[in-house]
Amino acid sequence: MSSPAEPAANSVVRYRDGDTAALTALLARFGLSIRRSPEQAPIPGSFWGDEEAGLLGDSVVLRGDTPLHSILHEACHYICMDASRRSGLDTDAGGDYDEENAVCYLQILLAGLLPGYGRERMMADMDAWGYSFRLGSARAWFEQDAADAWAWLQRYGLVTAGGVPTFNKR
To answer: Measured between alpha carbons, how far is 53 from 159 in angstroms, rounded to an integer?
Structure first.
């Protein structure tokens, strides 16, 4: 698909709705590939089940109905985990509270690099899915309460001092 379709206002953007070439290229910069699962079939490596993305080694596993926020979230787990966890990755990314916050922050940054998606839509999709933040929304968290997540990403060389992704893995 060359240009993203406009999803309904109350629905999340899904893989089939987005710029799949741009997403594939973005993930490839981190050494990740996309692996398609047949529509309606369970997604191998999915921690949450249903249409949620899975992780198997250096592949993000998805279907056409997989939400983009889920794809980027799982990709960011791969990026944020250390090499020893990445080497045996199968379904459960693990990690601690600080790493989970960093994953959420990074997925918002990466969404800004996808044509037709962007940070605002990512945060709306995160809220629609049910991500939970102290300040009540992904946007409020990102703008007012995520200094620890940004610092974590910077400490591991995943963002620059200006908050730009470096395309490195931890």
So the answer is: 24
Q: What is the 3-state composition of the chain as percent helix, strand, coil, each rounded to the nearest 5?
A: 45, 10, 45
- Characterize the bridge pairing of strands 54-56 and 33-36: unpaired
- Torsion angle of the four alpha carbons 118, 120, 125, 128, in this order, in degrees rounded to the nearest 10: -170
Residue type at 1 in one-letter notation: M
HSE-CB at 103 with a 13 A cutoff on CA atoms is 24
Q: Is the pLDDT of residue 6 over 90?
A: no
Q: Which two tokens stand for residue 164?
A: 């730009």
Q: Which two tokens stand for residue 19?
A: 């710029």
Q: Rounded CA gap, 82 and 25, in Å? A: 22
Q: Where exactly are the structural domains of the chain? A: 15-155
pTM for this model (two decimals): 0.92
The model's pLDDT over 100-142, given as tens digits with 9 standing for 90+, comes to 999 999 999 999 999 999 999 999 999 999 988 989 999 999 9
Q: How big is the chain by its Cα radius of gyration, in Å?
A: 15
Please check whether residue 141 is in contact with residue 101, taking contact to mean a CB–CB distance below 8 angstroms: no
